[in-house]
Amino acid sequence: MSVITEKSKVKVHYTGKFTDGVVFDSSKAVEGDDKFTDKDPIEVELGKQLLIPGFESALQGMKEGDTKTVTIGAKDAYGEILDDRFQEVEKSQVPPTVTEGEILQANGPEGTMVVTVKEVKENTVVLNANHPLAGKDLVFDLEVVSIED
What we know:
- There is one protein chain.
- By secondary structure, the chain is mainly beta.
- The protein has two domains: about 10-80 and about 135-149, Chitinase A, domain 3 (Roll), CATH 3.10.50; about 85-130, Thrombin, subunit H (Beta Barrel).
- The protein is about 5% helix and about 40% strand.
- The chain has one helix and nine strands.
- Strands 1, 2, 3, 4 and 9 form a five-stranded antiparallel β-sheet that branches. A four-stranded antiparallel β-sheet has the order 5-8-7-6, with no helix packed on it.
């Protein structure tokens, strides 16, 4: 039976949760939560940096049919919250109805990016360009469906 290595091509079902148990994403239906329905497992070739580092390393050594739950620290998930990813802009640069927590698209030096409205002030708005899951430890339930070497 094949074992997952750093170059394996795998199909994996997963459920991603915050440490308080709240599910944020899943490839399977989640009991009691109708926003998650059965989907195909993710299919990915390891070593191409398509997954967060902790997810990829957690898969290594697993075999077809194996399941496990792993907690991935923020550093090995979507990274820590970086202060330089916050920017204060004039209100005229955002839609007039913008509210705290709203997700916007913004043009940055590397093209279009997604930002979250952190704070709405009298004349300015503070935007957060960190990934929405940055700074969070994440828990993943993993189930290996298949492995190709």
